[in-house]
Amino acid sequence: MFSASTLAFLGLLSLLSPAAAQTWTSCNPMNSTTCPSDPALGTAATFNFTTQTSTDASVWNATAGTVNYNTEGAFFTINQKGESPTIQSNFYIFFGTVEVIMKAASGQGVISSIVLESDDLDEIDWELMGGNTTHAETNYFGKGNTTSYDRATYYPVNKPQENFHNYTVDWSQEKIEWLIDGDIVRTLLYADALGGKDFPQTPMNVRLGIWAGGDSSEPNGTIEWAGGPTDYSKGPFEMVVSSIRVMDASKGASYTYGDKTGSYKSIKIESGNSTVAQTVNAPPPMSPVQKFQSLPKGAQIGIIAGAGAAAIILLGLMICCCVKQRRAGRRERALVDADYEKRTAELMAYRTEMGKQRGYVQVSSFGASRERF
User: Fold this and answer.
1) How many CB atoms lie within 10 A of CB 364?
2) Looking only at Cα atoms, what is the longest distance across the chain?
3) Active-site residue set
4) Among 2, 136, 170, 345, which residue has the least CB neighbours within 10 Å?
């Protein structure tokens, strides 16, 4: 459950720019000592979006817009200005690996994003521009430091708007590696990020989304970076994620900032079982056949015997019903026949009487009649 302050922040967030839907924090531990602990994933989990119609709200939260699902995966769609559908994990990882199988959206100025974000605004990104059909961008930020924008680098990828690719971040205390389809394309060492000051190193959640960097409300620098103005009449623009695998390198129930330094050394790992891990690793509900097969042999035999007895009783009831219906039918037919014979006799008697009155005698019901003198 979210706190009242978090819910209020989410409401405010919906009024901000599309980019803010993916890079924000409800409580920055660099500024406050009362921020809540971050629930840990504490395990490895794979989320297959091709086999579901929605995400578990206890694991993934839609922070903006609506995400739809079919057999191809999760669809993040921009139909009009102001839309930026985004989902965010309710769990955090403290170093680890994130692999996303994704097909980027087309469209000038449209950005498909994979973002790892911490409460103190450490950030690791994959970003693909809809108008760039040959390259993907990697980027990172430390503690929200945007004094320079020289950290982004671009790497070749084959038709990212037409093909699914595996975009991976492998993150440790010493380095960050970005991989495309299993090949390392970039490595950032701790010391190379301003001596470690800008190195992302605090627990992060995972955010997947699409937004229009080319929207007219964005600064000119953002529009230029995104590839130019977005023309919404050429939409809809769709980013598709078929699956995501997340591995938390740390084990525990939650992560807490021990001070305001923002250093990984200050992070306290609370021992215990992660509630998110219990949810994602819970076995799927068993089908009736699986439930039966999981029963002891004696119970299975008892169920089969009971079902057989019930079938015999049902068959007996059906036979009795049929016999009763046939008997009832015979009685009904006998009554009909008796009524017919009675009516026939009455008719013959009537005809005989009428013949006498007219001077004729009817010899039989089918024989010839003769006159009476």
Assistant:
1) 8
2) 147
3) 123, 127
4) 345
